[in-house]
Specification:
Residues 19-187 form the N-acetyltransferase domain. Keywords: Transferase. InterPro entries: Acyl_CoA_acyltransferase (IPR016181), GNAT_dom (IPR000182), N-acetyltransferase (IPR051531). GO terms for molecular function: acyltransferase activity, transferring groups other than amino-acyl groups. This is RimJ/RimL family protein N-acetyltransferase. The chain has 195 residues and is of the alpha+beta class. The chain has a domain at 7-137: 3-Layer(aba) Sandwich (Aminopeptidase), CATH 3.40.630.30. Helices cover 29% and strands 30% of the residues. The protein is built from seven helices and eight strands, in the order E-E-H-H-H-H-E-E-E-H-E-H-E-E-H. It has helices at residues 29-36, 39-42, 52-59, 62-67, 118-133, 148-156, 186-191; strands spanning 14-15, 20-23, 68-73, 76-86, 102-109, 138-144, 160-170, 176-185. Strands 1-2-3-4-5-6-8-7 form an eight-stranded mixed beta sheet, with helices on both faces. A hairpin with a 5-residue loop joins strand 7 and strand 8 (176-185). The longest helix is centred in the middle third of the chain and has 16 residues, at 118-133.
């Protein structure tokens, strides 16, 4: 069985040139609600609670807190990121070796802080965390095809587009939308000159 480091076992916060990333706590509920409730944000994310109480119920759940990191700039929360560690597919005889081998990533940046490269800087650090600190084999991310800012970010950090689905995802507007899926392998990340 492969033993991998967990998010909880890492030393926090992580620091980049301008940002700091740390695990979310219940005290961060209001700060994340501030930007997640905005229509220009909630249009693209999986969950858009209508009230602070609904947001609190989701955000403060142990599973959410366990996979959510806050992005801070100068002590101000400017966004959050998700690192959802998952098992990779494997044949039954070797399934143990695929446990916790990959992660799905997600991100939300407060639009008041957009256009400064914070999301790119945070996601690059997230990739470093996944491959160096957690020892993962692969990371993935998906978005609605119409969310150009998100898929351009995936390409900017070196992720490779793996699929484009056609109207497979039902948006809360009632429309069926296309989705894009991206991935990056640890060896691709290293070949790009990281680590």
């Amino acid at each position: 069985m492969t033993t991998r480091t967990t998010l909880a076992a890492l030393s926090w916060p992580l620091r980049t040139e301008r940002l700091s990333l740390r695990p979310a706590t219940v005290d961060d509920t209001g700060a994340t609600w501030h930007f997640r409730r905005r229509a220009d944000v909630s249009n693209w994310i999986t969950r858009a609670p209508a009230t602070l109480e609904e947001h609190r119920s989701w955000f403060e759940a142990p599973d959410t807190l366990a996979r959510t990191l806050l992005i801070e700039h100068g002590g101000t929360v400017v966004g959050d990121v998700m690192v959802k560690i998952e098992d990779a597919w494997a044949q039954a005889e070797i399934a143990e070796r695929a446990r916790g081998a990959q992660a799905e990533l997600g991100w939300v940046l407060d639009p008041d802080h957009a256009g400064r490269g914070y999301a790119t800087e945070a996601v690059r650090e997230l990739l470093r965390l996944c491959f160096e600190d957690l020892g993962l084999h692969r990371v993935t991310a998906t978005c609605f095809a119409a969310n150009e800012a998100s898929w351009r970010l995936m390409e900017r950090v070196g992720m490779r587009r793996e699929f484009h689905t056609v109207r497979d995802s039902l948006h809360r507007s009632g429309e069926w939308l296309d989705c894009l899926g991206y991935a990056l392998l640890a060896d691709e990340w290293k070949r790009a000159g990281h680590s």
